[in-house]
Amino acid sequence: MKKISLSKKMIIASICGLAFGIIFSDFSKDIKFIGDIFLRLMQMSVVFLVMGAMIESVGSIAPKDLGKLGIKAILLFLVTTLLSATIGILVVNIIKPGIGINIQNTLEFTKPVIDNNIIDMIINFVPINIFKSMSEGNMIQVIIFSIFFGLAISTSVHFDEAQHVLSFIKSVNAVIMRIIELVMVFAPIGIFALIASMTGNYGITILIPLGKYLIAMIIGAISVFGIGLIVVGLYAKVAPHKILLKLKDTIVVSMTTTSSAVSLPMQMHDCENKLGISKRVSRLVNPLAMSLNSDGLALSISIACIMIAQFFGIELTLYQQIIIVLISTFTTMGNLLVPGGALVAFSVAFTMVGLPIEGIALLAGVEWFAGIPRTLLNVIDDVLITMFIAVNEKEFDREKFNESK
Length: 405
Prior knowledge:
By secondary structure, the protein is an all-alpha fold. Helices cover 76% and strands 0% of the residues. It contains 21 helices and no strands. The chain has helices at residues 6-23, 25-28, 32-43, 46-59, 68-95, 118-124, 130-136, 139-155, 160-185, 187-202, 207-236, 240-246, 248-257, 260-273, 279-292, 295-311, 318-332, 341-353, 359-364, 367-392, 398-403. Helix 11 crosses helix 12 (240-246) and helix 15 (279-292) packs antiparallel against helix 20. The chain starts with 5 loop residues before the first helix and ends with a helix.
């Protein structure tokens, strides 16, 4: 008998939760505690998960890769991630997926949603005591420390001890990943309880923001890689639509598997054999992009944060939304390759912004569908960055590009 994937289980749990909440609206409100336990279990390893992923990602970059090519790639990762998060903010404010539902907010918020003092905010990015930052769940401070920790390992080329530390971090990460996997086994049960409770409280209208969320994701993804195609096409002096046509195999793999890691071999094949990108550039930038660049996740997080704020009636100023763009960028660094990775990233972002973590349940029901445009954006943008660098490095074979089909 074929095993049912976690994504399908979450979809089934969401549908059953909706039905249960409609039929047993009064009783469904009493099972919310089951979902709350699941959310707490998912949050308990987040600090170690983010710290470990960041240290391993940065620490594993070979010093030679931190040279000219690596710096160009990382700067472009930052630019495209910021663009994706910004487009997400624009799209979600136009579509307004969380608005239009009359709900009575039963949640209490004592934590302010982002401080408005930009100088203090920048100062507070830097930790004084990393253990204090970890205990308080201050993820930006944890990320800043982890970047420096990873860089220290990466640049300690003559010290075997540094590699021992990296090996230890990788081992810890493997254990933390296993904890997440064990917790995610209970995801369908937790999501069922949370969706049932929400439906019992708010009714069937809870489906409205889900449909709008998917529409916002699709429009956002098309907008971001559309801009990228035009920019790279102009820079390389080739027709943008030809780039897309040469990536048709990669696109099919990414959309059917919703996995950037699984798409990587086909992605590199198309880069080297159809787009005319040199093997040197392709084999450095593509794997680096898969680990450090996640434009689709940045788009998801920015849309999700604003949507959940809208849904629960939390007012966010323009300044606060700009901060969400930065948070979306920070959160995607290290690219959490875990089961339900987007849900884990949402929990990190919601905690940092001060939004109700219960909003994750609302997004979980359509997570598999949202994964299609998210993965597609990740993969296409990784290829476009690789092609841009190849042209800049004069390692773009125009004849191979024109000859290949």
